[in-house]
Amino acid sequence: MSSPVSRHLVIVFADVSGSTQLYERHGDDIARAVIARCLDALRDVTLRHAGTVIKYIGDEALCTFHEPDAAGIAVCDMQEAIAELDTGDLVPEGLQLAIRVGLHFGPALLEGGDVYGDAVNIAARMAAQAKAGQIITTRETFEGFGPILQASCRLIARENIKGKSETMELHELLWLQDDATRMGSGVLKTMGAEPGCLTLAYRGQTYSVNAERTRTVLGRSSSAEIAVDESLASRQHAVVEFRRGRFFLIDQSLNGTYLLQDGDEHFLRREEMALSGSGQISLGRPFHERPSGIITFDIVQ
How far apart are CA 38 and CA 233, in angstroms? Predict the structure, then answer.
């Protein structure tokens, strides 16, 4: 039998919230099918971000990632995947599903396909602290995040956690784009242009942004005005906005937005940029990878 291997890992616990009520309200067969669908979605997200599903514990998934940023993006995608999960064939009236997520970055032991150690216990404590739809993590994980994910976190508490002698910092990773802090690139001055119209086109459909309809949301969510079939896009990835006589592209995602206009390619991450003339927008995927979900735009003054 091989000896345990010690590695620094991000340990993630993702727990389906309200499963007890789900069983009580809909019975064992439907509840089990819904939970299985949730766990399948969590597995798919984990694998897409190069993580490992260690095991399922009832209605909970235990996963590992090598890097904090990969784990942070993955758990945000987990929340989005569960929020959008279609269970209409199982429960016609629909379900409002949510997960509670906790994660911690630290040394852990890998042995026999399982993971052990203090990091696992701390991650489990973080999941226990989370409410439905929340992602709770520690200072160690926060410090391992890059600046974009750090900007999407807020310190919510310093608490004594069971089993730990010292007070721990609890950080919430905000995955809902309306809640996350947007890092703007500054306000661009108005040049006195007359109000015009910006037309967005995607897969044969056109959408207008103008003085009457001043805002259009682009993203992977079915609730976005332009719902893009792109795995790297966030639910509400970016916004095209008419403001002070000009049009702006505002990224509010984790993976960023690629903009091609005036012969130049730009990358926006939690930034905004004025649009001019005509061009192309790609959500989360660079143009050199030939994304299939390109949105084109054209401005007529």
Answer: 20
Q: 50 in the Ramachandran plot: left (φ > 0), alpha (ψ -120 to 50) or beta? A: left
Residue 237 belongs to domain with CATH number? 2.60.200.20
192 within domain boundaries? no
* Each residue's pLDDT tens digit, 196-254: 899 999 999 999 999 889 999 999 888 889 999 998 998 889 999 998 788 999 998 88
Residue 190 lies in a domain: no
Q: What is the pLDDT of residue 86?
A: 87
187 falls within a domain: no
- Cβ within 8 Å of residue 201, ≥6 positions away: 207, 295, 296, 297, 298
| pLDDT of res. 271 | 86
Residues 219 and 156 in one domain: no
Domain of 36, in residue numbers: 5-173
Helices (H), the chain: 19-26, 28-48, 68-83, 118-129, 139-144, 147-151
Closest by Cα among 106, 87, 110, 107 to 98: 87
Amino acid at 165: S
